[in-house]
Fold these 4 entries.
Entry 1:
Amino acid sequence: MIRFSEIVTTASDLLLRGGTLLTLDAQATVLRGADLLIREGRIASIGHVEPPAGARVLDVSGCLVLPGLIQGHLHLGQTFFRGLAEERRLLSWLRERIWPLEAAHDDESAYWCAMLGAAECLLGGTTTIQDIGIGPGARGLLQAIADSGLRAFAGQCLMDSGDGMPAVMRPDTDQVLAETAALGDEFAGKAEGRLRYVLNPRFILSCSDPLWEGVRELSLRRGWPVHTHALEQRDETLAVRELKGGRDEVQYFADQGLLATDLRLAHGVWITHEHLDRVRGGRFSVVHCPSSNLKLGSGVADLLAFHRAGVPVGIGCDGAACSNQLDNFAEVRLAGLLQKVKHGPDAFSGLDALRLATSEGARALGLQNEVGTIEPGKHADLAVLASDRPELWAAPQADPHDLVAFGASRAVVRHVLVGGRLEVEEGRLTRLNLEEIYRESERCLGELIRRSGVGL
Ligand SMILES: [Zn+2]
């Protein structure tokens, strides 16, 4: 246990007093009745800490304090489309509704659409996201993420081809590569360093060979990671084989040199042991999206196979258009339950599930030295859960990781801090104005639906 010693007071000091800290460190240490001192946005010390003179003290006694949740795969640009593409298979879902709606975004609609999603994430205890972006309106989306208070990997969604895709989403390959490089130069490091840039080729069916080659070159030259969808549905993998001369996604990525990049795959439901042998030892991760996979009938990913192969697994809500809610606690619970169905009730614990959204989720994004655990030196990205909720009331012998993984939801979130700043206090957003977001979203969405030509 680290104790307070010789710490000089600054105006930014904040002491969380008397909580139960779920550190999610390597030993899954739980500290009961512990204090947590935040200095200059980082965790300065944990344990028994006397408040430095002038520090603000926030009483969190009886509350569970855990690392802020990490969502490794999100589409904030689809938040407006919640409920507008139900009962469709993936490729129809994209072609009939999601692509035409996304194509109608402009910077303003994208800004408020992303703000709406960011507000939902923060209120639910999410502090870090990885967003796959949109094409038209990408600048507005990036600006919203920069303004939201979230920590993020974000970038423009890259596409240049594809059956059934609106023309505006199929720009010239060189043009889209130049645009994304310029956006990366503009936005990387924004928001006091909270925003990092990521290259987001959408998926194999919407990106030409030259686009993947350009992505690989940009990634290796600028050090930007690559985030894409792959192996989500059987229909999709069959279409990829047809398009790419019988090669599956991982063979194709290997041929394109993508396995040499920091490659982050959303879904991976249909990854095989042969695929995992091929990516072993590389900088490769998977982001599990269980609600989306169930809603779109995609299947259940085998997280134990990823673990055996040493592949870090993150978790995310995907987007409001497919999972309806951006509550990462719901994903954690589902992930745990699905692995129990797949492998047996003793195969995957509440702690295993909670790590997907904290310590392991951080590894999936290469952020393990910055966030994902409660340890001195890390960013003070934290979620404080209310002490007065019946669903968290339990015998002291109960493992708090199980209580959170299987019993928590966004309803229990009381405070949320990102970089030591209280973004949510007593269940209310402090930076974002929800009334304004609703008002602007309503205005922008009406105009967007008219522009899209989708018969709604
Ligand atoms: Zn997705």
Entry 2:
Amino acid sequence: MKNYDFVIVGAGIIGLTIARELAKRGHRSVAVLEKESEVGLHSSGRNSGVLHAGIYYGSDTLKAQVCAAGSKLMQQYAKEYGIPLERNGKVIVATSVESIPQIDVLLERGTKNGIRVEKITEKELTEIEPEAQTKEFALLSPDTAVVDSGGILSALVSELNDLGVKLLKNSEVIAVKERTRTLQLSHGSLGYGYLVNAAGLHADRLAHRMGVGEHYQILPFKGIYKKLRPEKAKQFRGSIYPAPDLRVPFLGVHITPGIHGQTLVGPTAIPAFGRENYGWINGIRIGEGIHMLGILTNMLALNKNGFRRMVREELGRYSNSGFLAATRSLSKSISKNDILPSKKIGLRAQLVRTDTLELVMDFVLETGDSSLHVLNAISPAFTSSFKLAQLIVDKAESVSR
Ligand SMILES: Cc1cc2nc3c(=O)[nH]c(=O)nc-3n(C[C@H](O)[C@H](O)[C@H](O)COP(=O)(O)OP(=O)(O)OC[C@H]3O[C@@H](n4cnc5c(N)ncnc54)[C@H](O)[C@@H]3O)c2cc1C
């Protein structure tokens, strides 16, 4: 049986950047296991591609610690490997009178986090982003960028190959024997010295098999995108985001001019009942779906942090008129003919605390005897990944020595 010092489960952005960090630090026995036949089939290949500046997060969070630094590292990487990147900035607008105070809260958070962010008036907003609209004030984030997420993943795969990291595709981890440090895979088995769980939408299941993070459960939230008609898309320079409800971890439907000339609108954050439920019912396992529905029902009944209102609003976006209303709150003249369908759908690996029935806001790193588990790798985990990988490898090295 083949044995590796470090085995990483999941070849999304988190697994790949961790493998790179290990190899760069001189570790020669590193393998990444991926259940799919190619990388990027889940969140890392299905996101908005926005490199967040780091405005939203309280200064005591892991997100604040790694987001801005991660964005800088990814931008350097994109430059080095010639991956398309656009530093086109973003504005955050108040879509209702009630959300005006959020502008000041975000200004304070961003400033505390050392991020460049500026409060601007409605008139200044029109000069910067003529199609955007706000109530009284907005925020300008000049350091927000968009990147070709697929390009980053491909560059990492080829770099890992050069660094001697073994990427094993079609290799699903099915069971773990911790006593012998053995993994049972879809084909054969493998030994590990230290295991890093970066399994995204399945990370809680793997953690639970190893007796870790048992009070957490992933409740997936579906992100449906649409796109703007090309003639309309030309009127937008950078991204437009609404000032979000900071009690929930979702940023709201936004407009994002991407690097391939396509301007995306979305994503929604609609509760899903399967970890890979990209269509209507495919990807739903009945037993698990019923369990998730049970958690959701209890969360709706408790209604912590305005959860009921959030779900109601998001469900409304399943309809074209609900989606249009969310888009129109950001922009002056978008009409229903400007919004075209898109096949892009992502699922967020959102963690819930099963004891308090609350959505978890920050990234979570849990450790076992010879394992580390990356839980709640939700946005901005793509942006943060290169910096988060450094932190994770620091931890893994200190335990595995
Ligand atoms: C709609 C949407 C929009 C987003 N927008 C942004 C954004 O603009 N900016 C940003 O920074 N972040 C964004 N995010 C978040 C970001 O995409 C994710 O945080 C990030 O991609 C998570 O990476 P990951 O490696 O943890 O997960 P994944 O990319 O899901 O990778 C995990 C991998 O593990 C594999 N796997 C699972 N179980 C097993 C197993 N048992 N054995 C072997 N392999 C396994 C899976 O096949 C998968 O390839 C967005 C997310 C979504 C869903």
Entry 3:
Amino acid sequence: MKQANSSLETGKVQCPVCKSNEIGTYFQNCTDLLYQHPGKWRLCECKKCNIVFTDPVLSEEELLSYYPENYSAYNKKRSDNYPVLIKLLRKAVRFPYTIRFGDLLSLEPPFGKGRLLDIGCGSGLIMKQAIEQGWKCWGIDVSPFAVAKAKKNVPEATISQDTLEGFATETRFDLIYFSHVLEHLHNPKENISKCFNLLAPGGKLVVTVPNITSFEAKIFGKRWIGFDVPRHLIHFREDVIMQLLQESGFCKLKLRPAFFASSISESLILLLPEILRYKVLYSQAARYFYGLIIFPASVTYLMGNKSIIEITVQKPYVH
Ligand SMILES: [Zn+2]
């Protein structure tokens, strides 16, 4: 595995968006806090376009080894079979968010039914929900674990192990769901343009990314869960992602926080080893902290917590 090198000092680091060499340091000595893979990375900031990115850049093959089989997105399960009490508690946790921002992802009109592409489909939960509501679904994921699970969970969908760059189809989609994926990819500009080309005129893109200008990011610093080094390659500010989408030809429809109530408890777990001087086993500590902090954390949405942002944009009918 690559280690952080002195590429910044030698001036070889290039912005992945505007290709400028005017690069500053955002954070030094970042490590894989979630899975403790070896290595150190630096977060760099482009002085020209303000994008923040992880350096050194790992190849797609190298990056795959940083996604273990127990990576959370590959193991999401449906909540249908949860006990009634758990279902009620989940609703209660979401209540502050829904009274301010409405439902979580709604696949009903104004999105309507049609062809949906889920990029980074994980275990296929969104496609399952969409198919039940009358959508025809396609899904891609780079992980063989995720693709195997999604094919089992959603046999009706067309699922392939593919990158967005490598995904070739004649189909044009009415909705592309691109949630918690763009920050994992090397070329944000090219990937947003690819989404634009894959959409039918009037088609919509829902993109969800961590927002480094949020108060959570400021409070937790490099131990904020949204940085997730080295899996997150690009770290977006709200205005930077919006500008990238608009430069690709999209029109803005909506920007709101995405619901992710466990982000505060997960960041606290990542912070704990520094405070308590011992290592907290992530999976065990997560359950405890999640239960303890989830209700006060959910109230932060009423106060405008935008640690993760969900942006809905539309491809114009004529451009
Ligand atoms: Zn740049």
Entry 4:
Amino acid sequence: MQELETARLYLRQFTPDDLDDLYRIYSDSEIMKHLGKGVLTKEETQNRLYAILETWKQNNFGIWALLHKIDNRFIGRCGLVFLDKTPEVELGYILDKHYWNRGLATEASLASLHYGFDILKLEKIVAVARPENLASQRVMQKVGMKYEKNARYYDSDVVYYSISRSVYFRLQNLQLN
Ligand SMILES: CC(C)(COP(=O)(O)OP(=O)(O)OC[C@H]1O[C@@H](n2cnc3c(N)ncnc32)[C@H](O)[C@@H]1OP(=O)(O)O)[C@@H](O)C(=O)NCCC(=O)NCCS
């Protein structure tokens, strides 16, 4: 199970001890406004946490806990999962609202894409968001994803973005040169 590091973040595996930190995020109505049915109970958060741990065991990918390097504080989660009931791999992220608009979701997302394309050798990674979730779409755009279509996943109408392996590496090379 991989752990990643970026300029400002550690992306580490979740442990059962992360329940309270995850619940702090999942119980916040502002953070959960555009997600599923909204806030989760502690029991629902516990189930999600077990699912995160199980998914890593079943697949060679999953969701990381995000820790800010400054103080090792838990600030959210980011990573790769199967999109709804499909074989497609989806990038997803949720951050503590006190850390929004500092480029941190973009930073964590780029690390997740690197893992997906460099380590897992995926051909394509997608992301979905409700149309009104402009911050999420902006992150998709900033990591090089392009809008493909409107679609329906997780019982919600969503916009569907994607990036292919070849585009990802082309963008990486452009940034290096
Ligand atoms: C979506 C989310 C993860 C973004 O995290 P973040 O760390 O703030 O993201 P970044 O700072 O990397 O980028 C955010 C971008 O969205 C922009 N943005 C923020 N709010 C916006 C809004 N209401 N309308 C338009 N753009 C907005 C920011 O200006 C920034 O773009 P810029 O760098 O071009 O200025 C965070 O808002 C969040 O956790 N939201 C709640 C959970 C969620 O919706 N997750 C996604 C589910 S699909």
